[in-house]
Write a structure and sequence with these properties.
The protein is α+β, with helices and mostly antiparallel strands and 429 residues long. It has 14 helices and 16 strands. α11 crosses α13. The chain is globular. The chain binds adenosine-5'-triphosphate and magnesium ion. The site of adenosine-5'-triphosphate (ATP) has 22 residues, from β4, β6 and β8. Pfam families: Pkinase (PF00069).
């Protein structure tokens, strides 16, 4: 059953805040009229999950997972299916990445544990967030932030290469995300267009941390071949140990080539031939690609890892110079989130929102700071509300290119919605 009999108990009353149980102590306390099953949304929901036949059936057939109502498929990867879902209480859209536990060997389980640990450690406007993990006997569900604007690969396949300014704005955000990852000692190792998503408002989201790894230092040598061959650096094909950051930088070079030209730099019909192409460095940037962009691509696709550009160096390059971020790039996260006062305000707002839904102070925990247990529905609701609040305060404002003409349709939409902060331009052509 996909999260049936979801128990929400305060800390200290049971082994965890959320567990799949026989449902015996879900819902109101007996004999306490104020705690009746209809007194708040949370109680109504948990009561339905125990007693409403339709809801119980939906849980059994996977139309509901925990507190989420599941809709159609939105993506598919080598290891998972991804579906759209809604939080039954907050009504926010989320992406459910569904993994079949019965088909996972020890290696895959280890990777998944890393994917969860690394994704939940990150909080950045250009990195997909993990809200919650729901586990059933056969499946694992990663509840992720929903990026409703599709993935970069599909966009380029459908519409061809990106217009110059849109390409700049999107690539700058990808770089910003990778800088943040590397500052946090996380190497992505599977950067490719399929793993770069857009929100409906054009904010870029780097996704899929299935091959990511956390290193004690950026000079730590790694030895597992990961990722997708067309994006793999020469040192990976040489079967050598390798350093993490330059491998991500090479993949960024392939990605920028693809964004700017609509074609891949290294193409071959067999893996052996592809390997040869990459080892020979056999690629050519079309002459019509602007010089500063060409130089950036070539700086990332240098054969020797030590010669490749560093991420910091690239953010200040000629080609990206006109991109204006709404916050300085020096801090690890947008400045609002390092400001203690603002953080406290946000936390207050989120806790008030949770209380309105029926989560008590006991559920959330009385200590300052966010709940940490990803397998708890309290954490899921907390992170969703936190993200919503941060978005409302402008944390996902899309950068602009100085002097770029804004898309009048988006401007109209912005005025109509009366948004306090919104993306200022159309990111893709
Ligand atoms: P692979 O290893 O083959 O890249 P995977 O099994 O690890 O794939 P993901 O890459 O995480 O799975 O997801 C597969 C696809 O599902 C993505 O390419 C994207 O189209 C869609 N998808 C994934 N996460 C989200 C999300 N948060 N929002 C919207 N769509 C998503
Ligand atoms: Mg993927």
């Amino acid at each position: 059953m996909a999260g049936g009999q979801y128990q929400v108990a305060p800390p200290g009353r049971g082994p965890s805040l959320c567990s799949l149980t026989d449902g015996s102590d879900v819902g109101p306390e007996e004999g306490d009229p104020d705690d009746g099953p209809h007194s708040n949304p949370l109680k109504r929901l948990t009561s339905c999950m125990r007693t409403d036949e339709k809801v119980m059936k939906e849980l059994i057939i996977g139309r509901r997972v925990g507190f989420y109502k599941v809709r159609g498929e939105i993506g598919c990867g080598s290891f998972s299916r991804v579906k759209l879902a809604f939080h039954a209480l907050t009504k926010d859209k989320v992406a459910l990445k569904i993994l079949d536990k019965t088909r996972m060997d020890v290696q895959a389980q280890r990777q998944l544990a890393r994917e969860i640990a690394n994704t939940e450690r990150l909080q950045h406007p250009n990195v997909v967030r993990l809200y919650e993990v729901v586990e059933t006997p056969c499946r694992l569900y990663l509840v992720l932030e929903y990026a409703g604007g599709g993935d970069l690969h599909t966009r380029i396949c459908d519409r061809g290469k990106m217009a110059a300014d849109c390409c700049k704005v999107a690539f700058a955000q990808i770089l910003f995300a990778i800088k943040y990852l590397h500052n946090n000692m996380i190497i992505h190792r599977d950067l490719k267009a399929e793993n770069v998503l857009f929100t409906a408002r054009g904010c870029v989201k780097v996704a899929d941390f299935g091959f990511s790894t956390r290193v004690p230092g950026v000079d730590r040598a790694l030895d597992t071949f990961c990722g997708s061959p067309p994006y793999a650096a020469p040192e990976l094909f040489r079967d050598e140990s390798y350093l993490g950051p330059p491998v991500d930088v090479w993949a960024l070079g392939v990605l920028l080539f693809f964004m700017a030209t609509g074609t891949m730099p290294f193409r071959a019909d067999t893996l052996g031939k592809l390997r040869r192409c990459v080892l020979d460095g056999a690629y050519a940037v079309p002459p019509w690609v602007p010089g500063p962009c060409q130089r950036l691509i070539k700086g990332m696709l240098r054969p020797l890892p030590e010669d490749r550009h560093a991420v910091d160096q690239m953010l200040g390059c000629d080609w990206l110079l006109p991109v204006e971020f709404p916050w300085p790039l020096l801090g690890p996260v947008p400045p609002g989130w390092t400001d203690r006062e603002e953080e406290e305000e946000v936390e207050e707002e989120v806790r008030a929102g949770l209380e309105e839904l029926g989560f008590t102070r006991e559920h959330v925990g009385t200590q300052q700071g966010p709940p940490q247990n990803s397998r708890s529905p309290v954490t899921g609701a907390y992170r969703i509300l936190l993200h919503r609040t941060q978005r409302r305060r402008g944390c996902e404002t899309v950068p602009v290119v100085r002097g770029m003409v804004q898309d009048p349709r988006r401007e109209g939409l912005k005025a109509y919605r009366g948004l306090r902060h919104s993306s200022k331009l159309c990111v893709v052509s």
